[in-house]
Amino acid sequence: MKPLRIAIFLICAVPIGVAASLAHAADAGAPAPALALPTATGETVALDQLKGKVVYVDFWASWCAPCRKSFPWMADMQKKYGPSGFTVVAVNVDKKRPDAEKFLQSTPAAFTVVYDPAGTTPTAWNVKAMPTSYLIDGKGNVAMVESGFKDENIAELENRIKTLVGSK
Amino acid sequence: MDKHSMRNLLLSLAVVIGCAGCASFNPPQPWEKGELAKPAMQFDPEVLQARFREHTYVSKEGSSGGYGVGGGGCGCN
């Protein structure tokens, strides 16, 4: 009976493993996957147009509490480093646009917000938690991935932004 | 093939097919948990009352834990 059990386990485990390894990852050091999404006014923001700039891509949703916490910080970073070639692109993944609009009324965004209700970009970028942010250097490579906007990582994130903006 | 081994074969076949069903199951992705994050989706709608009850239960039964995980379903806790 034992070999049968092992066989059953393998049959079940292999497809799961294959599915997990097929996912494209936006890992640190790798080139950032494509991103081209519309803003509220309809103009498209594409990542390859922003080459040469340090970009902070943030995936957020109206129902996500840490996202709300990250907004003032992102606005602060945009204000501080925007003039030296830094930009925040916040990708909203709400299925319903009014949810996002309601969030933005109470939590104003002083940076670029684009919308992806279909969720194709978070799939391509392999977002594992909400929020997940990707710091992308001037060459279009992922420099740092931050899952969940944790207090203890904020200082390091700003340091990385500062160095990337400075080394451009 | 006797009756016994036939039954074993059918049983293991059922298990294998059942497992294959699990492999194709797609749980909601982190960015698809908007509905799950709604207050109505909580196990207990009254947080304070639940904590009070839990406190009473713990002190009466002398046991703690096993109440599931708290959080908004965003996968970040």
Roughly how many Å apart are the termini of chain A? 63 Å
* First and last CA, distance of chain B: 54 Å
Taken from the alpha-carbon principal axes, the silhouette of chain A is globular
Structural class of chain A: alpha/beta
Residue share in helices of chain B? 40-55%
Run of helices and strands of chain B: HH
Strand content of chain A: 15-25%
Description:
The complex is a heterodimer of chains A (168) and B (77). Chain A has 168 residues and is of the alpha/beta class. Chain A is built from 5 helices and 7 strands, in the order H-E-E-E-H-E-H-E-H-E-E-H. The longest helix of chain A has 21 residues, at 2-22. Chain A is globular, with a radius of gyration of 18 Å. The N and C termini of chain A lie far apart (63 Å). Chain B is elongated and about 60 Å long. Chain B is built from 2 helices and no strands. Chain B has helices at 3-23, 47-61. Chain B is mainly α and 77 residues long. The A-B interface holds A 4, 8, 11-12, 15-16, 19, 59, 61-66, 93-95, 99, 119, 122-123, 127-132, 147-149 and B 12, 15-16, 19-20, 22-24, 29-34, 37-38, 72, 74-76.
Write the layout of secondary structure elements.
The complex is a heterodimer of chains A (168) and B (77).
Chain A: H1 2-22, E1 36-38, E2 44-46, E3 54-60, H2 65-81, E4 86-92, H3 97-106, E5 112-115, H4 120-125, E6 132-136, E7 142-147, H5 154-167
Parallel strand pairs in A: 3-4, 4-5
Antiparallel strand pairs in A: 1-2, 3-6, 6-7
Chain B: H1 3-23, H2 47-61
